[in-house]
Design a protein that fits this description.
By secondary structure, the protein is an alpha/beta fold. The chain is built from 14 helices and 12 strands.
Amino acid sequence: MSELGLQFGRSMLAHWHLRPDITYLNHGTVGATPKAVLAAQQALQIECESAPANFMARQVTDSLGMCHGESRLRHAAREVGAFVGAAPHRLAFVRNVTSGINAVLQSLQFAAGDEILVTSLGYGAVTYGAQHVAARAGARVVTAELPFPPPNALAVVDAIVAALTPRTRLLIVDHVTSETALVMPIADIAAACRSRGVLTLVDGAHAPGAIPLDIEALGVDFYAANLHKWAMVPRSAGILWCAQAHLTNIHPTVISWGLGHGFTKEFDWEGTVDPTAYLASAAALAFLRELDVAKMQAYNHQLVVDAQRMFAQRWSHHDAAGAPPLVPAALLGTMVTLPLPRALGAGADAALALRDSLWFDDAIEVPIMAIGDRLWMRLCGQVYVEPADFEQLANAIERRL
């Protein structure tokens, strides 16, 4: 067991630059990079500046035909691929999950009358990307209404299958939903789609580092994810994986010198960008191994499972109609989204006001969302968080009732 792994809780803040006077319960939004990983990235930036053209053109990529041996991006892709269960020749770095999903959407050919299926719990920006592509082709975006909270994983699969039609070409589905924090049964969903001839594109923004991940075993066609959230890589860094059958058809949204030379060469050079976040993934994975990945994931999962129970007990008397049922632990990873007492209001304005109030008045960072007819909060477990932080949040909210 690692030395770091023995110290989970607020003492772990020593390994981040997070301010000690704040309570940070929002690791999932843009991540928080450990000091050691930032130091590794800064060393790479300095190395680049010592001989910029040599670093960028001869070392980082082989897309320009100047690299001798394996490029540093391909080496990094091998290490990340081993972590997420992806063959490196099917894995490319992208700036973020949105970039990866847009690359897939803009590479696929849709016709008038085709349907792209999204879900009611999907990420809004991704749905906008689907709507943009569909509108150009005369296709349409259809939304599968998913139960929240769902009673079990089967209910999620059934809701998606019920929304599939003979016109459905593509399903876009989250592995871990962003606002509602559900871990979706991706393998079962992909199998149902595959049997009906529907392609599956997974938004895995919150998966790498948060839950055990083996992309190749899921049976999906495309998988895009962020590394700068739960995998501790500096911002911004993501990945795009494509099944073998699609490698020649998927292109980056920025076409450059790699065109026509294969999937990885196209994505490895989209013009001049800072590649050091991608290259620092090795340091991030080393940090995760030092924490002990399985121990970290188990700790974070138990934090949110226990927090859900604690809040339900504290606030059970606030709603005469009763609070929504608890989310099954099997559908939770490192986050949980919980209902707030109805007395706090409803709607987007009330959500923003409460979120800002908690930050400016109590130094607590936690997302507050308007879902349905009430407010909800999404809690993130992380190794620098401990149960007392959730108690502090509960007390701060109760002062507003």
